[in-house]
Amino acid sequence: MARYIFIMGGVMSGIGKGITTSSIGRILKDKGFLVSAIKIDPYINVDAGTMNPVEHGEVFVADDGTESDQDIGNYERFLGQNMSIDNYMTTGSVYLSLIERERKMEFGGKCVEVVPHIPEEVIAKIKRLEKKTKADFILIEIGGTVGEYQNLLFLEAARMLKLKEPKNVLFVLVSYLPIPNTIGEMKTKPTQYAVRSLNSAGIQPDIIIARAAMAVDEPRKKKISIFCGVDEKDIISAPDIKSIYEVPLNFEKDDLGNRILKKFNLKAKKSNGGQWKKMFSNIQNPTKQVKIGIVGKYFKTGDFTLMDSYISVIEAIKHASYYFKAKPEITWISAEQFEENPKLLADLKKFDGIIVPGGFGNRGVEGKIKAIEFCRKKKIPFFGLCLGMQLATIEFARNVCGIKKANSMEFAKAELSSDQTAEPVIDMMLEQKKLLKESRYGGTMRLGAYYCKIKSKTISAKAYGKEIISERHRHRYELNNKYKEILEKRGLIIAGINPEKDLAEIVELPKIKHPFFVATQFHPEFKSNPLEPHPLFREFIRASLKQKK
Ligand code: GLN
């Protein structure tokens, strides 16, 4: 029988509900329990695949191809476990499955209503995860902020589950305590309002995670305790800290794990936190630095640049750096500037390694190709991810094989016919052409885990230490096999192939020619975590550190 912990947000969004959920998961896992987690996104979108990452943050891809919220990535990174469709739901997906059941007459002529059927569907999904994972704890993170119209039905599901199983349900509110400059004092009132708002949905929080610039002091803990009806010991300080990976350790300073267990009348089975502590000590005590540049599209919302769109890439760089006790310094480099002023390419020499990550659409593409050419010629360690691999191939085709018009059909703006770009070195996959003709965009890319066979004696072979690997994908285009022969003849190594469909998955340059030039059609960043950095990121950072010397 599982216990359910609902994690909700108060006052404002973006205060770390996902990291809180992941950290609670880590703490309970280290105490010997089986943990799983669900993220609830209040959007009508059936999944995150159709959401613009600038607006919503990264689209995280699971092994089963689920395109989900970036918090699922945090769950994987903190728990070291694979997530799937069962770990994610949106308002849209809940309605969709309910409507599908209604169409199959599963309700036997009854009226199907928003309440109770939607909350019941939510609870059924939670139970499905429980059945599948046999977890001792299911953590359920409700997106958005309490008091929003959008997540009311999910709060209703939480309330109904508590009613059915009062001993098995716990409510955690992650709230924010501002310290206005003009007052210079931490204010508890917004949190009091958030709790009132939660109360009006029939929910009383058991634990409050007090997010603030600094730790919450005793007088304010008292105040929150009195006004919100929560034991002082259950008000957990969550001050701003430098690394998200410190959050579980920080929560434990306030004994959060044992407070949770006590409420369920449970005792820790084990005390396993050593590995996490050791990893964090590497973060805290770096012996060197590594400077990594990410060349991407320039993107902003208003005055703010959202690094969140590439959170898994950034975290994967960090994991690999921590492995070498190095402190990563990560800089976002706008690709478009190289189109306007190629002289700026010389700035890339300041970096120990360059990454060109995934992306869609043609903005900034020519600048990225110039950056890749520069890295290839100046022997700067280069790592290309998905679109980065496609562009590395185009660069090689143009500048080494002399195929001047080499391009991707994605940029030739002619998805449906191959003859509109002269040299489609990167072409749309056949089945994709059909899907797009029918405007079937949602959930139809080549998604999730596919096998890849690695060529022996390559950088990739050495990094993985095995011949067959599995990595996650999210793309519609691929290296056109018609060009394979000439590319290989001129020295590009196709280091990984999908055996079923004969698709190129990894391209490399030989080690004798370049310190590290590797690019993958898949997204290795989705499979990195702080205790197990991804082998290719690890080798990329190793080469970057060497470059530095
Ligand atoms: N736009 C490219 C494609 O669809 C690359 C996608 C990506 O980088 N994830 O194939």
Biggest sheet strand line-up: 11-10-12-13-21-20-19-16-17
Total count of helical runs of at least 4 residues: 19
The biggest sheet amounts to: 9 strands, mixed
Under CATH, the topology of the largest domain can be stated as Rossmann fold
**CATH superfamily descriptor of the largest domain:** Class I glutamine amidotransferase (GATase) domain
State the helicity in percent bands. Answer: 25-40%
Q: What percentage of amino acids are in beta strands?
A: 15-25%
- Indicate the radius of gyration in whole angstroms: 25 Å
Structural class: alpha/beta
Helix and strand arrangement:
Elements: E1 3-9, H1 17-30, E2 35-41, H2 53-56, E3 60-61, E4 67-68, H3 70-79, E5 88-90, H4 91-103, H5 114-133, E6 137-142, H6 152-164, E7 169-176, H7 189-200, E8 207-212, H8 218-228, E9 235-239, H9 247-253, H10 256-263, H11 274-284, E10 288-296, H12 311-323, E11 326-334, H13 336-340, E12 353-356, H14 365-378, E13 382-385, H15 387-399, E14 406-408, E15 423-428, H16 430-437, E16 446-454, H17 459-464, E17 468-475, E18 477-479, H18 484-489, E19 493-498, E20 503-508, E21 517-520, H19 535-548
Helix pairs in contact: 1-3, 1-9, 4-5, 5-6, 12-19, 14-15
The structure holds glutamine (GLN).
Glutamine is lined by residues 358-360, 386-387, 410, 474-477.
